[in-house]
């Protein structure tokens, strides 16, 4: 070991921060919260005869301030690899799992170099102990350093105006259209991206990738997890990897596997450049974040970071503190009620906003974060801190409003400032188009903004993130091609993934060479996309659904880092897929042009002016307004009239907002039916704008029908009409 001095340094900020120290000497300050620990060493790794990063220098952090161990090491510069060893008691029966033989990743590491492997040496306990029922209680003394990645010191001297020339789009919630994508999967097969950039942040920043997003008309990308993550042991044993990334271990570090330019800090600058490029194109960046659990799993899991720093301080433990409370289904749950854990999460969130430039977050299993000691609590410390934080309360906040614990389903319960993934919307729309809704009451709420869930506490229709598909589940094409999951490639006996798909295969399971079946499937795709994009709320598309991407019936492709999950861009060369893409573009352009489709207030069902129309009306095929009995009766046809005459609110100049009025007619039945277009005072005439029975949508205005006329609705179709004056 080389000798190095360790000066006292400072307890804040946490992590490794390169700076100029006393007497103008440059170096790095290391600070680690490790409550209850007996000693902490920072370990520096340099290249040696045995290879890169094989020479370890251990330095004691002798200063202790408020449970934070700290020290300043002169001469340590950006690019230096490091980790921590934390000494303390080994007593799993009381939750104490300190083991200095295990090199630990800094929770505040800004960059990570190296891959996570999971040989026995990486476990704090003896994984192969003969009595497996107590294996987690036997400490493993083997050194894990050769098998784990290291943190990297990065430049932290960026000027305060680093983002001064960046123009955040700041798209209002009501105007937002979210596009969920995977950094690697979206770019890996894109023919317009240079091969060396595919699968990376630089690939997503490439003009060919951004051009697709701009032409489509989305306003935000929601990136599947980009925090540094690790792969689970059971996947590695089967030769698979965690593709989605919901297994975080580094909350400040961009996942190194998505970097084209290097992993010794280059990934940080590459990520920032990607954000800048997307912002320049008018596209916001939202991160899917996993603060509910970590990659260390349960008591049989590896010791990578938090478990070895302070197991009892970071994780929720059961009454038997040897065991972990698991509200996530992933083996552990972060103890967000603890101040140091709350600090870790909020420090991470602020870092990604202020220093990495992102515009918002989607919180995986957010109900687990909102738990106080046991129950979900909307006055929990986590939600309270977010609500008062001057940085975080200004960004987009999306909750996945459930977890797997008792009382974890909380759709509609999150407070103002939050939007939510609305699975009630997903289920109602899927059921309607597969002919499984007992009546249309629930569908009416979902199409009009879900006021039954969100019209409280000042919340608005855009509290509902409407989606039909997400990364988890069938793709849109598979939703109309499969009734059963086909996850055999995951190696779990097809037991993984949900059985509640609410899908319809149009008569044939899987791919078909029957032209009629394929035509019906394409029509159903158009129906589903049109329904989503004319509904009130914030629509979320999944990358590839606009071109009919398939996963071969897999509804849980979390470990398929291959062509199953990567976007097949050749689909755009196929007539049917390209027609779906053009329809999506048309609908998004229509939504952008018409504020009546992007309402900022819930419908009242009453006129907004003395001589006005009701802002919302529902019609039966007879052209008559629906009665209470109609809502409780089975129905496959529904007309929705949105009045643009008197839209609540004013524009930026204080002017009254007016718009065209629209009539959307949804018909899920297999046979054509007659629909009478509502007459005065609703309209004098209607112009056909979208007809999903057509394989391709014309750009020019459609046919004009007089009010009161009967039009034929083709089987399983959506017709969208714009109100016009009489011819």
Automatic annotation (TrEMBL):
<comment type="similarity">
    <text>Belongs to the glycosyl hydrolase 13 family.</text>
</comment>
<dbReference type="Pfam" id="PF00128">
    <property type="entry name" value="Alpha-amylase"/>
</dbReference>
<dbReference type="InterPro" id="IPR014756">
    <property type="entry name" value="Ig_E-set"/>
</dbReference>
<feature type="compositionally biased region" description="Basic and acidic residues">
    <location>
        <begin position="487"/>
        <end position="499"/>
    </location>
</feature>
<dbReference type="InterPro" id="IPR017853">
    <property type="entry name" value="GH"/>
</dbReference>
<dbReference type="InterPro" id="IPR004193">
    <property type="entry name" value="Glyco_hydro_13_N"/>
</dbReference>
<dbReference type="InterPro" id="IPR044505">
    <property type="entry name" value="GlgX_Isoamylase_N_E_set"/>
</dbReference>
<dbReference type="Pfam" id="PF02922">
    <property type="entry name" value="CBM_48"/>
</dbReference>
<dbReference type="InterPro" id="IPR006047">
    <property type="entry name" value="GH13_cat_dom"/>
</dbReference>
<feature type="region of interest" description="Disordered">
    <location>
        <begin position="487"/>
        <end position="513"/>
    </location>
</feature>
<keyword id="KW-0378">Hydrolase</keyword>
<dbReference type="InterPro" id="IPR013783">
    <property type="entry name" value="Ig-like_fold"/>
</dbReference>
<dbReference type="InterPro" id="IPR013780">
    <property type="entry name" value="Glyco_hydro_b"/>
</dbReference>
<feature type="domain" description="Glycosyl hydrolase family 13 catalytic">
    <location>
        <begin position="180"/>
        <end position="591"/>
    </location>
</feature>
<protein>
    <submittedName>
        <fullName>Glycogen debranching protein GlgX</fullName>
    </submittedName>
</protein>
<dbReference type="InterPro" id="IPR011837">
    <property type="entry name" value="Glycogen_debranch_GlgX"/>
</dbReference>
<dbReference type="GO" id="GO:0005980">
    <property type="term" value="P:glycogen catabolic process"/>
</dbReference>
<dbReference type="GO" id="GO:0004135">
    <property type="term" value="F:amylo-alpha-1,6-glucosidase activity"/>
</dbReference>
<keyword id="KW-0326">Glycosidase</keyword>
């Amino acid at each position: 070991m080389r000798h190095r001095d360790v000066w006292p340094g400072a307890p804040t900020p946490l992590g490794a921060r390169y700076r100029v120290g006393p007497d103008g000497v440059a170096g790095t300050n290391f600070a680690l919260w490790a409550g209850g620990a007996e000693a902490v060493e920072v370990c520096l790794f340099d290249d040696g005869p045995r290879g890169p990063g094989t020479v370890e220098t251990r330095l004691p952090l002798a200063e202790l301030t408020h449970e934070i161990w700290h020290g300043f090491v002169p001469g340590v510069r950006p690019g230096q690899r490091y980790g921590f060893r934390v000494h303390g008691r080994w007593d799993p029966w009381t939750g104490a799992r300190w083991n200095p033989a295990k090199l630990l990743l800094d929770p505040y590491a800004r960059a990570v170099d190296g891959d996570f492997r999971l040989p026995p040496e990486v476990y704090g306990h003896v994984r192969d102990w003969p009595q497996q029922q107590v294996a987690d209680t036997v400490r493993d003394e083997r050194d894990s350093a050769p098998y784990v990645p290291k943190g990297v010191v990065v430049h932290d001297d960026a000027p305060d105006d680093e983002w001064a020339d960046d123009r955040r789009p700041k798209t209002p919630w009501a105007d937002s259209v979210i596009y969920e994508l995977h950094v690697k999967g979206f770019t890996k097969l894109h023919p317009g991206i240079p091969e060396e950039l595919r699968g990376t942040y630089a690939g997503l920043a490439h003009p060919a990738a951004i051009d697709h997003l701009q032409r489509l008309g989305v306003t935000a990308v929601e990136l599947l997890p980009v925090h540094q993550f690790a792969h689970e042991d059971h996947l590695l044993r089967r030769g698979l990897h965690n593709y989605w990334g919901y297994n975080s271990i580094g909350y400040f570090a961009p996942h190194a596997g998505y970097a084209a330019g290097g992993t010794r800090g280059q990934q940080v600058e590459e990520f920032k450049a990607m954000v800048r490029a997307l912002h320049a194109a008018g596209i916001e960046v939202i991160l899917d974040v996993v603060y509910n659990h970590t990659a260390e799993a349960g008591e049989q899991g590896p010791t990578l970071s938090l478990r070895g720093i302070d197991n009892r301080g970071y994780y929720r433990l059961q009454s038997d503190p040897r065991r972990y409370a698991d509200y996530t289904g992933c083996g552990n749950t972060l103890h967000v009620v603890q101040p140091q854990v709350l600090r870790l999460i909020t420090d991470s969130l602020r870092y990604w906003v202020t220093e990495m430039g992102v515009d918002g977050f989607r919180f995986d299993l957010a109900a687990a974060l909102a738990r106080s000691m046991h129950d979900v609590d909307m006055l929990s410390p986590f939600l309270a801190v977010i609500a008062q934080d001057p940085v975080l309360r200004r960004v987009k906040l999306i909750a996945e409003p459930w977890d797997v614990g008792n009382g974890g389903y909380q759709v509609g319960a999150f407070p103002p400032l939050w939007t939510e993934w609305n699975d009630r919307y997903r289920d109602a729309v899927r059921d309607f188009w597969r002919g499984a809704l007992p009546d249309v009451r629930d569908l009416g709420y979902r199409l009009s903004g879900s006021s039954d869930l969100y019209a409280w506490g000042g919340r608005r229709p855009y509290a509902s993130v409407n989606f039909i598909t997400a990364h988890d589940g069938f793709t849109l094409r598979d939703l109309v091609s499969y009734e059963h999951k086909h996850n055999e490639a995951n190696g779990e006996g097809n037991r993984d993934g949900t059985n509640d798909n609410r899908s319809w295969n149009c008569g044939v399971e899987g791919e078909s060479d029957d032209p009629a079946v394929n035509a019906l499937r394409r029509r159903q795709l158009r129906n589903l996309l049109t329904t989503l994009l004319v509904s009130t709320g914030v629509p979320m598309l999944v990358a590839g659904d606009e071109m009919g991407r398939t996963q071969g019936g897999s509804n849980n492709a979390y470990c398929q880092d291959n062509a199953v999950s990567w976007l097949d861009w050749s689909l755009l060369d196929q007539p049917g897929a390209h027609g779906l893409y053009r329809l999506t573009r048309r609908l998004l352009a229509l939504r952008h042009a018409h504020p009546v489709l992007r309402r900022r207030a819930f419908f009242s069902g009453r006129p907004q002016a003395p001589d006005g129309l009701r802002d919302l009306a529902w019609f039966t095929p007879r052209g008559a307004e629906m009665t209470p009995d109609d809502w409780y009766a089975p129905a496959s046809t529904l007309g929705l009239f949105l009045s643009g005459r008197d839209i609540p609110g004013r524009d930026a100049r204080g002017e009254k907002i007016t718009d065209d009025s629209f009539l959307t007619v949804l018909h899920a039945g297999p046979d054509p039916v007659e629909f009478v277009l509502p007459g005065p005072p609703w309209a004098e005439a209607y112009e056909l704008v979208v007809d999903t029975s057509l394989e391709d949508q014309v750009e020019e205005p459609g046919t004009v029908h007089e009010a009161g006329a009967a039009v034929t609705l083709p089987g399983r179709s959506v017709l969208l009409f714009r109100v016009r004056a009489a011819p």
